[in-house]
Amino acid sequence: MSAPVLEVSGLRAYYRTSAFGTRREVRAVDDVDLRIEAGEIYGLAGESSCGKTTLIKTIANAIQPPLEVLAGSVVFNFRDQRIDMHGASREELRDIRWKRLSYIMQGSMNVLNPVRRVRHAFVDFAFRHIGRSKAEFLDIVRAHLRRLHLEPDVLDAYPHQLSGGMRQRVTIALATVCRPEFIIADEPTTALDVVVQKGVLAMIHSVQREMGSSVIFVTHDMAVHANLTDRLGIMYGGRLVEEGRTADVFRRPRHPYTAHLIASLPRLGDAAPKEGLTGAPPNLADPPPGCRFHPRCPLASDICRREVPPMTERAPGHRAACFHSDQVSPP
Amino acid sequence: MRIWRYIAMFLFVGCLAGEASAQNTISNLPRKETLIVENPEGTIKNAGWFNIWAINAGGQSTGLHQLGMDTFWYIDPQKGVDGVWDNSLAADKPIYNADFTEMTVKLRKGIFWSDGVEFSAADVLYTIQTHMKTNGLRWSAPVQVNVAEVSAPDDSTVVFKLKKPNSRFHALFTVRWNAMWMMPKHVFEKAGDPLKFANDPPVTLGAYTLNSYDPNGKWFIWQKRPDWQRTTVARFGEPGPKYVAYVDPGPPDKRVIAQMNHELDIIHDVSPEGMFTLAKQSKTSHGWFKGFPYAHPDPTLPAVVLNAQNEMFKSRDVRWALALLIDIKAVSMASYRGAATISAIGVPPTGSAPDVYHAPLEAWLKDFEIDTGKRKVKPYDPTIGKQIADSLRPSLGEQIPSSADEIAKSFGRGWWKPNPQAAQELLERAGYSKKGDKWFMPDGKPFSIKLMVEGEGRPVMTRAGSMITQQWRQFGIDASTVVAQGSMVDRRAAGDFEAMITWSVETWGGHPDLSFFLDSWHSQFVAQPGKPQPPRNWQRWTNPELDKIIEQVRQTGFDDPKGLELGRDYVKLVVREMPTIPLMSYNVFTVMDDTYWTGYPNAATAPYTDPVPNWANTKYMMVKLKPKQ
Amino acid sequence: MISGYPLYLLGRLGQFALVVFIGINIAFIVTHATPIDPVEQSIAAATQFGSTSPEAIALMRQSLKELYGLEGGLAEQYASFWRRVAVGDFGPSLSAFPTPVSVLIGRALPWTVSLLVVSTLLTWALGNLLGGLAGYYAKNRTLRLAGLLAMAFHPIPYYIVAFLLLIVFGYLWPVLPISGGYKMNMARDWSWEFIGSLLIHGILPVCSLALVGLGGWFMGMRSLVSNIVTEDYVTYAELGGVKRGRILGSYVMRNALVPQITGLAMSLGAIFNGAIITEQVFGYPGVGTLLVSAVHVGDYSLVLGITTVSIVAVSLAVLLIDLLYPLLDPRVKAR
Amino acid sequence: MGRSFLDLLRLNRQFAAGVVLLSLVTLFALLSFVSPYPPNDSFVVPPDLPPSWTNLMGTTSRGQDLFWLLTFAIRNTLLFGITVAVISRILALVIGLVAGYSGGLVDRALMSINDTFIVIPLFPILVLFYFVMKDHMSWSLLALMMACLGWAYDARLIRSVALSLRTREFTETGIFSGMSMRRILVEEHLPYVLPIVFSTTMNNINWSIGFEVTLSVLGFTDINTPTVGVLIYWANQHTALVAGIWWWIFFPVLLVILTFIGLFLLAVSMNEHIDPRSRLGRSEG
Q1: How far apart are the CA of D121 and the nearest CA of chain B, in angstroms?
Q2: 20 to 30 Å CA-CA from C45: which of A25, B5, B447, B541?
């Protein structure tokens, strides 16, 4: 088996601020290991401010102070190039961006420059990778748009003239025009209504199938994960707490938090109101000792309060970080 | 950042290039042959207008009236090159008939206009007749009021028939700052409406013609006429400077800088501090007096002018009380930093006045008494001038004269000694009363005085005003200084003020006749409250005794010694009545730079004229100036 | 939307005309409310220092009133004012009678316009460039220092800055001319020498205006940029590996410039008032000095003339900006 | 409010520095109430003394102790600037938001008024106002006048932001959910324009102080109320710059700069605090 496209190991990224000598650390990503194989869609789930976005930023090396990477590495193994995202030079990074690694962002409403026509975005992002003359380049772009069932007219529109769903499709087209090997999709569907959402998801899916790219897909919406992703990672309090094939995770969650997430999905015929979690997500500036979930965990015991549960394999390809993994009840 | 290096280099090279040219502000003229003079009119709005007979249409002291114009007579504010009185275009003094209804002028021969036409009685006739038939020229009104008929029996004689007796009619043609100038007939008769003719370039009678000027009115350059010998000043020699540039050098700080850079030979006026800075830092700069107080005392008498039509100042006791509350030493320090020439009486302490008025009246002043109702006080302190000199001597040393005569000349003689006790008694007699530490008027309202000053235009007087209100305030009068920036002229004319610092007394300077201002003090000219008052009786004060003096002056010849007696009567009357509180002469800090020129007038060795360069009399300065080598 | 544009244009032009009309009317009322009487000013000017006979004053007053055409009532003056303005004539100046106001303005305006257009554009460009860089490269020390300097200079009263420059470059290190628009006695013949003189005389006035004006644009731009760099489209472009220069130019600055261009247009419109203090300190020719002196002597013809020119210019700038705004910011529909 | 103020003070260095600077300036201005010399009296100390321990900022050529004189001047100038800023901000906010939000005829009408105020030249109007008011001209009247003339530009700025806010989704959401105009403006739009208000406040204060100085330099001033402008006016009349009395200019200017920097820091940090976006950016995990 070839090396995974993305290898994240021991990654630790904190927000560090200091005001008047008081240092403050927000441990947004703490000891995360993950691998993503070629051609798979990897889902990343968790409630807001669990560190998803920070993890993605760190993976894409889009970090700015006060965010700092303290330990660990992010390595991409592209077809003919291996690159350490935090060791590479600016130029090297610039070379792979969009050509090999592209990005579909949250809040698609505002990712396009509002004062310029859409065409310019394609030129700015992709022209240097595709080369050729401007006219040929635009032909390629138009062909790509058509393939994605978009009218080439959109190139001459300003972003505000497009609807939300349309803009998101354009963004996807933009992210895929160079046929990248890896796509990071950060909540691309969050702000869209259900019908549009469905169309966009289908589009991502088909593009990915066609080009064989790998995708890391972030959303807090478990239903989306269930429909789209091949494998799923669950984050809580800055750590990865469970990871496995999506079907496995849904069928048999190995972490109480995952179980809770799945349980909170609405199902046909459900009459009783969902039971919410008590308590608030952990304060990452001062996280609880031991397992970060323990204050809210129905299964918490003494050991959970003292020791950090290691990420161990509970079934083939299914890892979880919980001392009481066995007691997690399937939904 | 390589770009910074380029910028620095660019600046450096630019500055080197600039250094060569910045030193020299005039192009194409030899600096050594050019005199650069400040024109206090500033920027001339309508620079291309040299028709001085049309009011306001252009500049006057741009060199135009100093170097280009001429008229019958000049009276010097100082001693004069050859006496105070100079017959310029006239060959002799004015000749009146017995009842002053006719004035004959004999004209000098051999005087030519700059275009080669000879000046003659026809020009005079044309000038007078044009003013008689045109309304709105600068001198139309006085000519129309006075002249019934003008004729020229021959080429060099002009006879004026007057509408009514006027013993001072010649004043219209006698330069004190300016006078009615003669028009070139041959130019104007071809020009159409004299009100709408720009007269550019002007054909001149003076020793200079226009060389070039800035259309934006910043500078005017005049050039010596090759035929300067055919002008009136030729009698005193050849004018020194080949070129004279009249410039607008900007605010006072800049004038100081310009002279320190030797790019401004004569500063018209500057703040006292600017004068001291120049005296300290520029070896070649000096004023009228060699040392302190430097400034030239103009024949102008700044005073606290009390609006006599205001109920508050109707009582002589109140006016006197206000005078006795002023500490003139502090006012002198605050306004001129001590460089003032004080005067207790209503005549400026300059020119011939100290000999004719100040010295002879000293004894009378010492004995003068005022009755406060409770007692009699002698308010005059003859030592105040000396006290000012003494207080300055520790810091200025040698510069301060020590002889009584010199002190009187530079700092003035005596003034009223501050006497709050007497002021209180006087105010109480006038029905004013003090409650707590505030004074109230007889009608029960607080005694409040707004003292109007001119602001930027006369900074020194603004300072004097704020010191005087401070002194009044300390006594319990609610006094404040208000600045009538810009609106002073209108408010002064309309009587829209309670008290103000300005002058209602201006004299010839060199000549002791007081009619120049005194005639306008007659009650016949006093306007109703709110109506505009003709110059100069801004205080709108009337007094039957004064009217009598004025009427007598009108019947006395200009040089009649009886006029001096009447003048002294006037002085005594205004001391008793105190309609205005005279402070000091208007000292002008005219600063002259010796770098390129010498021979400027000065108090000690060359008092031949007033150095203040906007006076038309400065034409005499040109013939005394010599290049420095 | 396109079909609405002519309608919008028409409405906007109407608004322009209305604003100009109201503005000029206010100016008329205000200038005629001045207590300064041009006739009294002329009399004072004619009688100061020199010999005066009080009897003649009344006569002089009357004839000047006739001459200046001030005899009629306010209504009459108002009517004749509009009659003249309609044909672009402001009548004769009252303090430089009989020279037409338009001649006086025409003489001063080229100086004002060239000085202020140059300094405004320079200041704007430099301020925005530096401000944009400082906002984008927030950590750069040189730019931080530049920011600090711009900020420190900004609040210093202009008069002081101008005078300090004058003292430094006109006296302590006398390398630059401190007075006038060009050397005295130089022919205005557009020779190289004359042009050089013009340029070198313009350095200090332009620099003084720039020093004080820079801070405003700088700070405005920096804060705009520091807001824009957090916008998603900037982050996205960075993730997309778009060149930093391109991001700064087409993404950050391009968006930040929208409000700054409005500001520029208005400052350009306002230049017709002249730079009063600059002109005073550097003895530079221009409309400001003319305006101040006109106000001082109650020459309401001249004040009104300058004011009207300025009102029309500023209104035009505002109008142009409104019409061009949809081009600058496509999000704003013309409405 | 109190908590967030303390938080800002503790966590935001810029805010703290701004508060410290402004407190110092305010404290300095408050010292005027204990000044040993009345502000308008001259020659109470020897003139032209350079700064020393007895006269911290030296003395003026008018024999005034600059330190104490400046306490009055800064007090009056600050009051002046703040008065102008507060009144004109309120006008600008109300008119800008309403015009931008309403659009159509209301916008057209308000902008006509607004543009009229933009186009009429300030200088002649203020000077003529000065002529008409004559001796009654005081700084408070001038402040009122300038406030009435100084809002239009910023109202236009606020309007343009309000215009673009109107096209954003949340406004439409607000309208559909039945919020009143007042509520939408206050709750939805105000937070977006507040940063503009803060930065324009600073500029407005700077503008009004600058204009006051300009008028003073030209002599159109009430010399009985010491302000920074009046101080410079007197310094000018005594040609202090060339006479070497540099402290007469230096200290007033220094205080103006400190005030301005204080305001600037405050405005910047308040913007960060208020701006919903940058606050999110800060706490996002």
Answers
A1: 19
A2: B541
Per-residue model confidence (pLDDT) at position D281? 36
Q: In chain D, which residues have their Cβ closer than 8 Å to the Cβ of C259?
A: 157, 160
Cis bond before residue A66 (omega within 30° of 0): yes
Confidence at residue C1, expressed as pLDDT on a 0 to 100 scale? 40
- Residue count (chain A): 331
The CA distances from residue B274 to B252, B257, C162, C172, in Å, are: 7, 9, 19, 17
Nearest residue, CB atoms, C233 vs list A96, A97, A113: A113
| Strand pairing category for A214-218 and A41-45 | parallel
Give the one of D132, D229, D264 whose C-beta lies nearest to C33's C-beta.
Answer: D132
Confidence of residue A109 (pLDDT cuts 50, 70, 90): low
For D37, the domain range is 2-284
Whole-number percent of chain D with pLDDT over 90: 27
CATH 1.10.3720.10 for domain C101-334, yes or no, is yes
Question: What dihedral angle (degrees, nearest 10) is formed by the CA atoms of B10, B15, B17, B21?
Answer: 150
Mean pLDDT of A83-98: 85
Q: Which listed CATH number (3.40.190.10, 3.30.420.40, 3.40.50.2300, 3.30.110.10) goes with B31-65+197-295+589-627?
A: 3.40.190.10
Instruction: Specify whether the CB–CB gap between D175 and D165 falls below 8 A.
Output: no
Q: Residue B438 forms beta bridges with which residues?
A: B435
Name every chain C residue with its beta carbon within 8 A of the beta carbon of D278. 227, 230
What are the residue ranges spanned by the domains of chain C?
A: 101-334
**Tens of pLDDT, residues A170-201:** 888 888 888 888 888 888 877 677 777 788 88
Does the domain made of B82-185 have the CATH classification 3.90.76.10? yes
What is chain C's alpha carbon radius of gyration, rounded to the nearest angstrom?
25
pLDDT at C26: 87
What is the architecture, at CATH level 2, of domain B297-587? Roll (3.10)
Q: Tell me: the pLDDT tens digits for D122-136?
A: 888 888 888 888 777
Whether the per-residue pLDDT at D263 is higher than 70: the answer is yes
Q: Is the separation of the CB atoms in D96 and D156 below 8 Å? A: yes
Chains contacting A (3+ CB pairs below 8 angstroms)? C, D
Q: Is the pLDDT confidence value at A135 over 70?
A: yes
Cα C176 from chain centroid (whole Å):
24
CATH of the domain at D95: 1.10.3720
Q: Looking at the 3D structure of chain D, how many domains does it have?
A: 1
Q: Which residues contact B142 (CB under 8 A, 6 or more apart)?
A: B172, B180, C52, C53, C56
Calpha distance A6→A84 (Å, rounded): 10
pLDDT tens track for C118-158: 999 999 999 999 989 988 887 788 888 888 888 888 888 88
Residues in chain C within 8 Å Cβ distance of B514: none
**By mean pLDDT, which of A286-295, B342-351, B607-616 is the weakest?**
A286-295
pLDDT computed for residue C85 by the predictor? 82
Q: What are phi and psi of B399, to 5 degrees?
A: -60, -25
pLDDT of residue D10: 67
Write out the DSSP string of B173-203: GEEBSB-PPPP-HHHHTTTS-TTS---SSPP
CA distance B596 to chain D (A): 23
Residues 562-591 of chain B with CB under 8 A from chain C are none
Q: Which CATH architecture has domain A38-60+89-267+275-327?
A: 3-Layer(aba) Sandwich (3.40)
pTM for this prediction: 0.86
Minimal CA separation from A171 to chain D, in Å: 19
| D167 in reach of chain A (CB within 8 A) | yes
Please report the pLDDT score of residue D279 as a whole number.
38
* Confidence at residue B20, expressed as pLDDT on a 0 to 100 scale: 47
B vs A contact (3+ beta-carbon pairs below 8 A): no
